[in-house]
Design brief:
This protein is an alpha+beta fold and 180 residues long. It folds into 2 domains: 73 residues, Alpha-Beta Complex (Outer Surface Protein A, domain 3); 82 residues, Ribosomal protein L6 (Outer Surface Protein A, domain 3). It has a 4-stranded antiparallel sheet, with helices on one face. Strand 3 and strand 4 form a beta hairpin. The chain is elongated and about 60 Å long.
């Protein structure tokens, strides 16, 4: 039995949860709405401010999806109530970021600035020109946007220059030896 899937997802009275006829869990709170489309091997039911994820049978496929969909529903509930945040640090001479409207402009040592359009549902804040904070309700979308921005100039191990996550540790390498 799935150890994660057997636990219910609890939500408070500020969150509105509905289960549609085509096996989707719709979570609303404030102006945030997230939808988790579920496979037919699992289904959800609501009982007094708790969401229970149940399997149709004990097949390998259903068992493997049980914990997954429980985690996805939990992330949707957490996302609409608290939101998710990723922080990026720009490390390098002349590396900086700024926002203008729905565009993030990055100077990362290339001959041209990189203009990154900010997707809907994501809020990007720039602090101190070298710290980019990405927030949003969808954990998947926040992580994807952070990964795309990091991919413009990944950190390199010799000088440590590049875009890295704030909690990421870069293992530094020693350069070439001067002589023996």
């Amino acid at each position: 039995m799935s150890r994660i899937g057997k636990y219910p997802v609890e939500f408070d009275s500020k969150v509105n949860v509905n289960i549609t006829g085509n096996n989707e869990v719709v979570v609303k709170a404030g102006n945030n709405t997230l939808t988790v489309a579920m496979r037919p091997e699992v289904k959800a039911r609501i009982e007094d401010n708790k969401i229970f994820i149940e399997r149709k049978d004990d097949s390998q496929k259903a068992r493997s999806l049980h914990g997954l969909y429980r985690s996805l529903v939990q992330n949707a509930v957490t996302g609409v109530t608290e939101g998710f945040t990723k922080s990026l640090i720009l490390n390098g001479v002349g590396y900086r970021a700024s926002t203008s409207g729905k565009t993030l402009e990055l100077s990362l040592g290339y001959s041209h600035p990189i203009k990154f359009p900010i997707p809907d549902g994501i809020d990007i804040k720039v602090e101190k020109q070298t710290t980019v904070i990405i927030t949003g309700a969808s954990k998947e979308l926040v992580g994807q946007v952070a990964a795309k921005i990091r991919n413009f100039r990944p950190p390199e191990p010799f000088l440590g220059k590049g875009v890295r996550y704030s909690d990421e540790v870069i293992r530094r390498k020693e350069g070439k030896s001067a002589g023996k």
